[in-house]
Design a protein that fits this description.
With 334 residues, the chain is of the alpha/beta class. The protein has two domains: 170 residues, 3-Layer(aba) Sandwich (Peroxisomal Thiolase, Chain A, domain 1); 149 residues, Thiolase/Chalcone synthase (Peroxisomal Thiolase, Chain A, domain 1), CATH 3.40.47.10. The chain has eleven helices and 13 strands. The strands form four sheets. A five-stranded mixed beta sheet has the order 1-7-6-4-5, with helices on both faces. Strands 8-13-12-11 form a four-stranded mixed beta sheet, with helices on both faces. Strand 12 and strand 13 form a beta hairpin. Bound molecules: oxa(dethia)-CoA (UT7).
Amino acid sequence: MVVYLNVKVKILGMGHSLPDKILTNKDLEKMVDTSDEWIRERTGILERRIGDEKTASSDLCVKAAKKALDKAGIKPEKLDLIVVATVTPDMLFPSTACIVQDRLGAVNAAAFDIGAGCTGFIYALTVAEKFLLASDYNYALVIGVDMLSKITDYTDRSTCILFGDGAGAAVVGKGGGEAGIIASYLGADGSGGDLLYMPAGGSRLPASEATVCERMHYIKMNGNEVFRFATKTMGMVSEKLVKMAGLTYENIDYFVPHQANIRIIQTAMKRMAIPEDRTIINIDRFGNMSAASIPVAMSEAEEKELFKPGDIVLTVAFGAGLTFGGLVIRWGRN
Ligand code: UT7
């Protein structure tokens, strides 16, 4: 096994893709017993994007990936690896990564999916990082995609107001210099699996007339417990990462939190004393896009040229599993 020393994995280009259709809080008022005011105050969400019947996760992936490859200046044949993080694959198998590999013409890439809920992109990027550092692979495409609208119960007001669809992609490569991933941390607590899950459609409860009638192919969530877990975990993961990187919160130029609830983000910002203009927030426009939330936020920030070479970016997520994790990235290529 080749292990590269003094080499870091760098983000070479990012891209994102969102469905055109906007579902507003006013639209939701007509569907369930809720109000624009309640949703804004309790979550910070104003609207979210929802894919149409014909659009699947791989469609959003391909669009996001093409933009990321273009930005990175990398041809699809150069990719050694494609990792797609999702809990809403096109189908149980083949993996969405394999569908994307074919549609991009990335003929030299290995491809697989990762399921880590909303922490999916962090897991996928960390896996790609380790692959690149421990092998002769040079380039990887990492995508976070979810179309939770496809598994959301639009009669359940406690969940249907939260979620939106999207995909974000990053092309990563390795090289010397200061830029790149400088700390990564992943964790899981499987004992909390039943706080956020979809009961049927797997080997435990295969799809049947009964599972459909009982609405078991939709997201079930204990919002209060997940909220508690999230606020605790965001702090714990941030602290660990900053220490691992040999930094303090004062060194953080940008904070990119998972976008689940503005109150969770504000708690984390307060704890770290990171101001709002240094925090990337898009939950108001896109809701909770699960595995896509962080890469879409980062891709938008990159598009606006917000991140400058040398900037320290801290990104932290939590999600179904339960899972948690984060990364500290020194932005740039060199
Ligand atoms: O990405 C990871 C996945 N998920 C999360 O991170 C979600 C984390 N949890 C949350 O964001 C919040 O717990 C929610 C937004 C889901 C809920 O907010 P909350 O402030 O924790 O509300 P609650 O569940 O404690 O409910 C308070 C009240 C209840 O009414 P009563 O019992 O006090 O009369 C609910 O029935 O609000 C009611 N309620 C609603 N009212 C209007 C719940 N959902 C709604 C709604 N509209 N959509």
